[in-house]
Amino acid sequence: MLSEREILSTIEMLRNEHLDVRTVTLGLNLFDCVSHDLSRLQENIRSKIDALAQNLVPLCNEIGDKYGIPVVNKRIAISPAAVFAAPFSAEEMVSVAKTLDDAAKSVNVDFIGGFSALVEKGIAKGDRALIEAIPEAMAATERVCASINVASSRAGINMEAVYLMGKIIKKTAAKTADHDGIGCAKLCVFANIPEDIPFMAGAYLGVGEPGAVINVGVSGPGVVKKAIDRALEENPDLDLGKISEIIKRTSYKVTRVGELIGREVAERLAIEFGVVDLSLAPTPNVGDSVGEIFQSLGLTAIGVPGTTAALALLNDAVKKGGAFASSHVGGLSGAFVPVSEDLNISDAAASGHLTIEKLEAITSVCSVGLDMVAIPGETSAETLAAIIADEMAIGMINKKTTACRIIPVPGKGAGESAYFGGLLGQSVIMPVRNLTADNRFIRLGGRIPAPIHSLNN
Questions:
Q1: Contact, 405 vs 373, CB < 8 A?
Q2: CATH match of 22-191 with 2.40.340.10
Q3: 221-234 and 240-269 helices, crossing angle to 10°
């Protein structure tokens, strides 16, 4: 274990390399808010969030100032709304989303996640109501994020849910067409969703989690890039095995920083500490890019031959460093490749180095999947569903989390640009094959069975 003094020296060493605590996320169980009366449910939600989250933002700011490292986002993750609001209609689910948005604004958090449903094996009444409410809910709120788990390695892929989500993404884009379909940037479709993700749009509080818990998301792509650059300047003959060790040691230090801050926030709030999610999540800022790490490793750009192997090395080293640093590593923990949120990756897409097919291939070894990918607005619901199904298959077969956060930008085509703002960034719209082709495979429905390894127990 590192002492606080050693951790502070690490912070001092890394503070100019875009190291930050990307998010402190307060998980809240809302099952005790349940009521058959919508007004009573809404009041219970407001009361609980206000009582437990009112000090989260000022406390994170105070602790960030104390250690000289910013906590960029403060967030809340709640129990799946499809469960605690199961009796209500789609229209009433929109009202629940608005209540969550108001509650998030009242405590000044950046996002609130958990407008979610888990439908990998079937769609219950509450699940369907929530899913149908998503387009209006995403358009009518600013801070609410939605996630739907449609597949798992034990249950297979619910193709009815996949097709439904293709339609929902189209409707959500249309509802937010005046802002390049930004509603879809707050919506993520998952396979094997973890129960303790602090990062949006996938954050929710799983059923097996504590009643209230602090989870921390730490990000440091700039730190990792600088560590690689320094090492290669000192010794240009370093091989990939030694570079992996450098990434691992850097990830160890970053994880310790996150746990220090997370545990102090939890202690001051008198709430249990959960996990550190060490994920190399970039921002649109220069020097804070996952894509630049590939260039430090000797590739022209992310997407060229060698990218999948480089990402496998990076992801593995990050996970090993985090696991050695803390016995409470969770969430996604690895490397993200969100196209619009990473200036370097967005440039690679614009130059043609990175195609959507290559992006899908590298998601087999990254921590998430097709993340913040802008595609032509005319893409059909069937094609959207087919893209989702392919990504879910990667997650199901490989027993890993994969996700789709794809944005069909209304009124725009391949090669044009979409603008989302803030951490969501901007991106060239990537071309998609068979935009509107008939896809009978998707319409067949049913459930793609789980692979044989699902029988392990």
A1: yes
A2: no
A3: 150
Give the confidence band of 12 by pLDDT, cuts at 50, 70, 90.
low
Name the residue among 205, 367, 229, 202 with its Cα closest to residue 293.
229
Sign of CA dihedral 135, 138, 139, 140: positive
Rg (C-alpha) for the chain, rounded Å, is: 21
* pLDDT over 90 at 279, yes or no: no
Cβ atoms of 115 and 148 within 8 Å: the answer is no
In this predicted model, which residue has the larger pLDDT, 230 or 94? 94
Identify any residues that bridge with 374 across adjacent strands, giving them in sequence order: 407
What's the pLDDT at 197? 86
Confidence of residue 367 (pLDDT cuts 50, 70, 90): confident
Alpha carbon 252 to its chain's center:
21
pLDDT per position as a tens digit, 202-242: 899 998 888 999 999 887 788 888 889 888 988 998 999 99
Mean pLDDT of 162-182: 96
Query: Could you tell me which residues come within 8 angstroms of residue 283 by beta carbon, excluding any fewer than 6 positions away?
Result: 18, 341, 342, 423, 425
From CA 238, how far away is CA 268, in angstroms rounded? 44
Asked whether this chain's domains 22-191 and 217-445 adopt the same fold, the reply is: yes
Please identify, in words, the CATH class of the domain defined by 217-445: alpha beta
pTM strictly above 0.85 = yes
Length of the chain: 457
Closest by CA to 391, choosing from 366, 423, 418, is 366
Where are the chain's structural domains?
22-191, 217-445
Long-range contact pairs involving 91-94 (C-beta distance under 8 Å, separation at least 24): 91/133, 92/38, 92/129, 93/129, 93/130, 93/132, 93/133, 93/137, 94/133, 94/136, 94/137, 94/140
